[in-house]
Write a structure and sequence with these properties.
The protein contains 6 helices and 5 strands. A 5-stranded antiparallel sheet has the order 1-2-3-4-5, with no helix packed on it. It is an alpha+beta fold.
Length: 166
């Protein structure tokens, strides 16, 4: 969801519906915004712009929709179809998603914010895998210390050493 310049939620960009067959966006007032151009960044296509300035100028809701004199422009991300599919899957499986947030995402957030690991220090998959593995080893080790205590861990390690050496 992205805000518009007027802060009217009825005209946020998620309220504009895409018609794949006609390749147009329908605004909340029912008007069509037509394909205008490709939006690029560093030579790569990042999206497609849709607009209809002639219709926007005459629209009774223009002041609620945009603060731009010419009219409203909507940008469709290059991978929007994929993003829409992921969004619909998430909505269909919201219980699983919430469970995943509770179980899986907490360690990532702790490592990221608690330890300042906002980015990887290495490059290439093998190095990044080793780096994240060490981070999770440290995370899990710290959890075990908090749960069992260092004395209990040392006792169990000594006990295992005796079994192995015997």
């Amino acid at each position: 969801m992205y805000a518009n310049g007027t802060k009217d939620q009825a005209f946020y960009s998620d309220q504009f519906k895409y018609d794949k067959t006609k390749n147009v966006y329908l605004c909340p007032a029912g008007k069509e915004l037509h394909y205008y151009r490709i939006r690029k960044k560093d030579g790569k296509i990042i999206g497609y712009e849709y607009r209809n300035y002639d219709t926007c100028k005459k629209c009774e809701f223009k002041a609620r929709c945009t603060s731009v004199k010419k009219g409203r422009t909507i940008c469709r991300h290059a991978d929007q179809d994929f993003l829409d599919r992921i969004d619909s899957q998430t909505k269909r499986n919201i219980k699983k998603y919430k469970l995943r947030q509770m179980i899986v995402e907490h360690p990532f957030g702790t490592i990221k914010r608690g330890w300042g690991a906002y980015f990887f220090l290495t490059k290439r998959k093998v190095s990044v895998s080793a780096e994240i593995s060490l981070s999770f080893l440290a995370y899990n080790f710290k959890r075990v210390i908090n749960i069992l205590g260092s004395e209990e861990i040392l006792r169990r390690l000594r006990q295992r050493r005796k079994v192995i050496l015997a």
